[in-house]
Amino acid sequence: MRIFNKIADLRAYLHECRAKNQKIGFVPTMGALHEGHLALVQCAKNEVEIAVCSIYVNPTQFNNPTDLEKYPRTLENDIKLLETVFCDVLFVPENAEMYPEKNILKFDFGTLETVMEGRFRPGHFNGMATVVCKLFNIVQPNKAYFGQKDLQQYMVVRQFIADLSFPIELVCYPIVREKDGLAMSSRNKRLTPAQREIAPKLYEALILAQNLLQNKDKNQQKNIQEIKEEVLVFLGNIEGIKVEYFEIVAQNTLISLDNLAEKTSIALCIAAFLGEIRLIDNLLL
Ligand code: AMP
């Protein structure tokens, strides 16, 4: 695997690849890699000649300074893991390389950035979109791979790829989970053993909501408000979990559904704190 820290060096190398007609697949990450990230890289390896991964903990997308400071950084191990899946190129820039000047660009993604993550993490999507646009311009991939785990992020990326006419095919990869259902996340590394034990309850809550929504027995059917309440009661009974939001939304807009009569694909989305660690998960129905 070739490792680059400088934009110019990476560009020069990828220029050669393109000259040889090699297609480039790109997996942007913040490191502390796990099987979810590796699945994205493997997917790229299966579809294109050159798989490029980036590891960059982007300060502008963190609204919580403690979260940024404590975000796990495990570069040596990440490199070993990327080699196990035959990643071709790793880009690991410093802050000065990515932000030589103070960044003032502002995006407006409308309701896509005012609901759920956008509501509780002001500025997050602006920072994410800025860095992903920069990375897209640096790597110029044919395909970019994002996880459904960060559903709203995927939707925002999809939006700016269309709005800014990036010639990039976007792939949404399903959520890779631990055996007990917990969605893999770099932040899981920060959970205490006791927190790790209760963390799968978030996924159980999503399954509970799914079962309630799909109940075919007319006498037992509940409306959206009742289902939301039942999920919150279920999680409210578990000491150590503090739900930030649980939403039943339309998959194509991420806007909250008021009733089940609306004929649309549904996404169940949850964010919760276990101590100071914030986890998210979702289920597409
Ligand atoms: P991150 O390093 O958390 O920014 O994630 C980098 C990419 O990996 C994003 O596109 C995430 O959605 C994706 N990702 C993170 N966790 C998972 C997972 N459990 N399964 C699949 N993809 C994931």
Topology:
Blueprint: E1 2-4, H1 7-19, E2 24-29, H2 35-47, E3 50-55, H3 65-70, H4 75-84, E4 89-91, H5 95-98, H6 116-120, H7 124-139, E5 143-147, H8 151-163, E6 169-173, H9 193-198, H10 201-213, H11 224-236, E7 241-250, E8 266-274, E9 277-284
Parallel strand pairs: 1-4, 2-3, 2-5, 3-4, 5-6
Antiparallel strand pairs: 7-8, 8-9
Helix pairs in contact: 7-8, 10-11
The structure holds adenosine monophosphate (AMP).
Structure summary:
The chain is of the alpha/beta class and 285 residues long. It is 39% helix and 19% strand. The protein folds into two domains: 2-173, Rossmann fold (3-Layer(aba) Sandwich), CATH 3.40.50.620; 186-284, 2-Layer Sandwich (Pantoate--beta-alanine Ligase, Chain: A,domain 2), CATH 3.30.1300.10.
List the bound ligands.
adenosine monophosphate
Q: What's the Cα radius of gyration?
A: 20 Å
Q: Can you tell me the residue ranges where pLDDT is under 50 for at least 5 consecutive residues?
A: none
**Helical amount:** 25-40%
> Considering the protein shown, what is the CATH homologous superfamily of the largest domain?
HUPs
The number of distinct helices, counting runs of at least 4 residues, comes to 11
How far from one another are the termini? 38 Å
**What series of H and E elements makes up the topology?**
EHEHEHHEHHHEHEHHHEEE
CATH topology name of the largest domain:
Rossmann fold
Spatial strand arrangement across the major sheet: 1-4-3-2-5-6
